[in-house]
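Lab meeting, item 3. Inverse folding demo.
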């Protein structure tokens, strides 16, 4: 009985561990995820920026500037930005966003440690997928600045996750059905 449970639950545990482990890269202090949507006028990307520094850190840094970098042949327009954030673009190749109110909320609009900020929405002339970014972070007392670089990552869409779960469940049911047929044929 234990062996049967192990056989049934092993694929599920493996998928969960792969999902929790991520892609094996080092932990970043800035994470940027996106949802991509095809529109008649182009490709809409909705970015969420997370300050992955521990909110209980003795040395907190706030994100105050993010530079998104992509292929210079792709045109971009800014659709929306979070409140008190502004952007500069050279038309192609990059979008530099920055906080207009210094400091963490509620007084400022920087992204504090342990916090996320959504609403960075850009329309590209073609799909860009995972792109490079660089971010600037400033200490609470504004005496030190550090930079972080990385690559954006897509958020799996709910239908994709549903397909994976359905496929794993289907494989389990198929295996169970075959075992029952095998036992019925032996009788």
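The presenter then showed the designed sequence:
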């Amino acid at each position: 009985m234990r062996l049967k449970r192990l056989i049934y639950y092993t694929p599920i545990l493996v998928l969960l561990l792969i999902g929790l482990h991520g892609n094996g890269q080092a932990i970043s202090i800035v994470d940027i995820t996106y949802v991509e949507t095809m529109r008649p006028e182009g490709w809409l990307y909705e970015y969420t920026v997370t300050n992955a520094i521990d909110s209980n850190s003795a040395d907190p840094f706030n994100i105050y500037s993010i530079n998104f970098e992509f292929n210079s042949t792709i045109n971009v327009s800014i659709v929306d930005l979070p409140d008190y954030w502004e952007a500069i673009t050279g038309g192609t190749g990059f979008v530099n966003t920055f906080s207009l109110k210094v400091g963490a909320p509620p007084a400022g609009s920087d992204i504090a440690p342990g916090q996320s900020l959504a609403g960075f929405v850009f329309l590209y002339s073609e799909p860009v997928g995972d792109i490079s970014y660089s971010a600037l972070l400033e200490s609470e007392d504004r005496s030190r600045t550090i930079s972080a670089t990385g690559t954006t990552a897509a958020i799996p869409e709910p239908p994709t996750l549903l397909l994976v779960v359905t496929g794993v469940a289907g494989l389990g049911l198929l295996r169970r059905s075959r075992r029952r047929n095998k036992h019925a044929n032996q009788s």
